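Reopening: structure tokens for the nicotinamide-adenine-dinucleotide complex, inputs below.
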Amino acid sequence: MRKYILLTGGAGFIGSHLCETLLRNGHRVINIDNFNNQYNPDIKRSNIKNSLDLAVSVQYSSSWYQFIEGSIMDEVLLDRLFSSFNIDLVIHLAAYAGVRYSLENPEIYMDVNIKGTLNLLEKCRKYRISKFIFASSSSVYGNNKHIPFSEKDSTDYPVSPYAMTKKAGELLCHTFHKLYKLNVACLRFFTVIGPRQRPDLAIHKFTKLILEGSDIQIYGDGSSERDYTYVDDIVDGIIRAASWINEQYNCYEIFNLGNSHPVSLNKVIDTIESITGKKAQLELLPMQPGDVERTYADISKAETVLGYIPKTSFERGVQEFVKWFTSYNKK
Ligand SMILES: NC(=O)c1ccc[n+]([C@@H]2O[C@H](COP(=O)([O-])OP(=O)(O)OC[C@H]3O[C@@H](n4cnc5c(N)ncnc54)[C@H](O)[C@@H]3O)[C@@H](O)[C@H]2O)c1
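Re-run output (same inputs, fresh job):
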């Protein structure tokens, strides 16, 4: 029977890029996304156009790629999918993402990010699926002072509901690994940039405001840093984890997927200004609760075990984003 990868959240920013690469690499994919309205669902519908075109253009049979509009909270739907397809690997990206929104909406994060993850793990147990990749986040490190952040550092002190749900997801995965020998890779993504980036994330928000000539609210003095990582590098890391997990027996591993080159907020603004040719108007505000001073990935474990080496500079990532943003907003 043909093997499928079940991808959750595949209409989102990272998931839509991943889906295209999986299809190009010849994998059969079931992509489930409910187009929730955390941000404009039209963006998500546009994100999946390429993967739908790709499936058609290479004349895959319709069963090669299935896009399912539905929720990971719908257990009846999940039962139908797990019983109908020979699922070999689950790549679980569906979630409510982002720190700020989680401060105002903690309950939905608990529901989707924790109960949704549990639903998928339960189906893996019930249908004897042995491989699971979980999208975790650098936010689990909270205000870690040990630089760069290593997988061995403590993640016991999250500073936002979002981070807490990602840590809970990792712990749920570990529990299912211990109880049912599920092979798990938890991938901690560090702020992802590139075309289709979510509108709540800094590069997207700032580009929009600079091009409109509106004020940008800066929290803190601009010295806070993020380890921005290009989406193709993240996709490459996920694909590498998927190959690696195939060769494992009874594994549970956590990997940082970052760029290991933190960039300050001031540099982010300078870069967008120079790419758009427009000057930003800044409104300086105090740091926000839930925000961390810095993220900085130690990627040596992913390098050694997975052969993960990020290749894209921050500047090129912003250029590619601005190109996408301009063409998307012309439509
Ligand atoms: N983008 C980043 O910088 C970043 C950093 C760290 C971790 N992550 C994690 O990576 C994953 C993908 O992030 P993203 O930036 O692409 O976010 P995104 O919001 O663009 O993608 C998530 C997708 O999940 C879908 N979804 C949400 N609830 C669902 C449900 N109940 N059923 C089915 N689909 C549902 C959404 O509609 C969305 O398309 C998330 O788990 C996020 O926490 C992202």
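The longest strand covers residues 86-92. Residues 8-9, 11-15, 32-36, 38, 44, 71-73, 93-95, 97, 112, 116, 135, 137, 189, 191-192, 198 surround nicotinamide-adenine-dinucleotide (CB under 6 Å). Marking as resolved unless the reporter disagrees.
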